[in-house]
Design a protein that fits this description.
Elements: E1 2-6, H1 25-37, E2 39-43, H2 48-55, E3 62-66, E4 71-74, E5 77-81, H3 91-97, E6 104-108, E7 111-115, H4 123-136, E8 141-145, E9 148-152, H5 158-168, E10 177-181, H6 187-195, E11 199-203, E12 213-215, H7 218-228
Parallel strand pairs: 1-2, 1-10, 2-3, 10-11, 11-12
Antiparallel strand pairs: 3-4, 4-5, 6-7, 7-9, 8-9
The structure holds magnesium ion (MG).
């Protein structure tokens, strides 16, 4: 079985700041063991550095799809690179955000994300700063997540990440595929997985239509994964 797993909100609880979302060592070891039985691929919007900061060294039993499908790793080894977009100079946006304390700009491969979970003021101001920059430097697309706005300059989304992964690893079409994720950015992956006959599992309280299963929280994700071993 091929098991795609989102990271933030799926394998670790959502944190106020992304760098705080460290994985529990026992859970990491469990994922490694799961990777010996199944193909386990973590699919994240984070780039490799940001992911490594919270996950540590990636063991070879675990695949990693970073930046919404920009790069694919097996353990620490880069096995495919689809990074074909360039992020513009974020200077003007950084300048604008100085007046909006609590916002946080995350620079990634082929994209950037503006987080405002800790911003206490009028969120319309954050959106205004974001869209002003984006109008001057048009990305291929804008992704709206939970208290995060993301501008993507490369052709990436988690659905493409899944498709690319299956192609790169030579998926034959007979091996079952599942995807577990919690956020709007996972919906592209859900669509791809459903299209190829796989199953989509949503983590959280309000599942979108068409999912095959709902897992209430991170605890329940691990309970579910243990049942697959
Ligand atoms: Mg997530």
């Amino acid at each position: 079985m091929i098991i795609f797993l989102d990271y933030d909100g799926t394998l670790v609880p959502i944190q106020e700041f992304p760098y705080l979302a460290r994985i529990d060592p026992e859970r990491k070891e469990f994922l490694r063991e799961l990777g010996r039985v199944h193909t386990v691929a973590v699919v994240t919007g984070r780039d490799k550095r940001s992911f490594s900061n919270v996950f540590g060294e990636v063991p070879p039993e675990i695949f990693l799809v970073t930046s919404h499908g920009a790069k694919i790793y097996r353990g620490e080894d880069l096995i495919a690179n689809f990074l074909d977009g360039k992020v513009p100079d974020l200077g003007p946006l950084k300048e604008a955000l100085k007046d909006l304390p609590g916002t946080f700009l995350e620079e990634k491969e082929g994209c950037f994300a503006l987080h405002y979970r800790s911003f206490k003021g009028d969120e319309a101001l954050v959106e205004e700063a974001f869209y002003r920059f984006v109008r001057d430097h048009p990305p291929l697309k804008v992704i709206r997540g939970k208290k995060v706005l993301e501008a993507v300059y490369g052709e990436f989304d988690k659905g493409k990440g899944v498709e690319r992964f299956l192609k790169v690893t030579g998926w034959k079409g007979d091996e079952p595929v599942i995807y577990v994720g919690d956020d709007t950015t996972d919906m592209d992956a859900f669509r791809v997985v459903k299209k190829i006959g796989g199953r989509a599992y949503f983590v959280g309280e309000r599942p979108p239509p068409g999912v095959d299963g709902v897992l209430r929280d991170v605890e329940e994700v691990y309970r579910f994964l243990r049942s697959l071993k």
